[in-house]
Amino acid sequence: MQFGIFTVGDVTADPTTGTTPSEHERIKAMVRIALKAEEVGLDVFATGEHHNPPFVPSSPTTMLGHIAAQTSKLILSTSTTLITTNDPVKIAEDFAMLQHLADGRVDLMMGRGNTGPVYPWFGEDIRQGIPLAIEKYALLRRLWREDVVDWEGKFRTPLQGFTSTPRPLDDVPPFVWHGSIRSPEIAEQAAFYGDGFFANHIFWPKEHFQQLIAFYRQRFEHYGHGRADQAIVGLGGQAFIRPKSQDAWNEFRPYFDNAPVYGHGPTLEEFTDQTPLTVGSPQEVIDKTLTFREHFGDYQRQLFLMDHAGLPLKVVLEQLDLLGEHVVPVLRKELDAMRPAHVPDAPTHESLKAATLVGSQA
Length: 362
Known about the structure:
alpha/beta, two-stranded antiparallel ribbon, 12 strands, globular
């Protein structure tokens, strides 16, 4: 079981002080948060990709390459790589380069994003979002797996005799998760290829995502990749932790109430009741996170959103200390003990490399 954090890289005013970090301060803070994640024993750091204010992570591989040079164990990932508006050739090259720099500690999550204006900025049509995701990802897989590619499709110029460089490290492409909050077509795509499916269920009730994940598992088995309960599933989550529950509620409430994403809507009490958001003590975070397995089955990756809504860096680092010391060790032990032997771990570069070697010898 992998545990980690993901960030959307928002630049948001602290509602308790009125202070807004600069873009420079926010970017540097994200790096510090990633380093802290490794320090406290987390497995994964994932950054979003955005091309509009108030977000700053427009170049995920630049940031992850910088973090790779300062870490040794942390898996570096994305919480969205915009397959719809990026060129598959550039994705193939950028993430293969990052693989080499990070000695394989790389995977990525494909997504369509939820910001409509991004499409025309990159010359695409949002009405073609699903066909773009399907065609571009099919090309990306070939670029990583074939030394020379001839290709022709609908949404980009043809390729003739093209070789993407550098080649993936050890001839093992990065593992891919497909992220979606609403599209069965993306769950189908993940299942077809035997890739991972990540349900960032932080905003909607669990029933919606239970249907989506169940559909992915059924299709994973349909395509012959294994049993439904062996499908590779990741989940999002949110938490604000203090040793005493009431202190957590009192401190987090103004951030929640003014957050650009979910502020000025449901109350904090309503939101924690209806979504994975947990505000409280370490034990309360543990208890609620353990219910995810009851709702969705055994899964491989749990990522928490911890640095949003204007929380100052000092507070975020304190959150990671509590998460790494008091929450994740218990979750890791409990979830690993409950997982049946036939349910796989999350793929890593080393496990994929070993599987490739076994396959070549068979």
